[in-house]
Amino acid sequence: MFLENTVNHKEQFGWIEVICGSMFSGKTEELIRRLKRAQFAKQKVEIFKPEVDTRYHDEMVVSHDANEIRSTPVPAAANIAILAQGCDVVGIDEAQFFDDEIVRVCNDLANQGIRVIVAGLDMDFKGNPFGPMPALMATAEYVTKVHAVCTRTGNLANYSFRKTDNDKLVMLGETEEYEPLSRAAYYHAMREVLSPALSKGEGDNTKKDSI
Asked: At CA 8, angle to CA 72 and CA 34, rounded to 5?
């Protein structure tokens, strides 16, 4: 369970909170919840998201449940450092789409006394650690891993399976393109995806051997 830190005025340092998980796990919902609590407490809050994320709205951070909060789209992590000056709390959504500079930016902001709340996918559709997320999780004081529900087994899901035939690492999408899967379901789904390629490769080798 996540427990919000208390402010120690003698220690003029902030901290980093990371909310991570698969698609449809409620990462953005939890991010918005924490940010709105800070706004209710009359803290100065700024929210940022990568410029590439325009799925629901150009400027709003919007969860799958249609909960939303106004944000500032930025092209690179370096812009956040400039725009976040004087804030009490900084929220960053879809952090996996930022360059590695986001790690330094988050730590610099925390060192300036700012509470930094970051949400993002911990793994890409291939099941590999996604972009700067591993480094953010390592340097954060708090890491909250949230889970979706597997669409095939009903178990907890922590993998984002891509249903479309597209090998690009960054591809925005919703339920038409992705589904959350448990480890077992993801393993079987990837085997189904890879089996035609493997079969083709085996056939090519057999043909080559017979020449």
From this structure: 35
Q: Which residue in 17, 30, 46, 94 is the catalytic one?
A: 94
Helix (H, G, I), strand (E, B) or coil at 142: strand
How far apart CA 101 and CA 107 sit, in angstroms, is: 10
Exposed / middle / buried, residue 131 (Cβ in 10 Å: 0-12, 13-18, 19+): buried
What confidence tens digit (pLDDT) does each residue in 129-162 have? Answer: 999 999 999 999 999 999 999 999 999 999 999 9
State the Cα–Cα distance between residues 30 and 44, nearest whole angstrom: 19
94 is annotated as an active-site residue: yes
CA 129 – CA 96 distance, rounded (Å): 9
Burial class of residue 194 in the structure, from the number of CB atoms within 10 Å of its CB (0-12 exposed, 13-18 middle, 19+ buried): exposed
Rounded to two decimals, the pTM is: 0.81
* Structure confidence at residue 67 as a pLDDT band (50, 70, 90): low
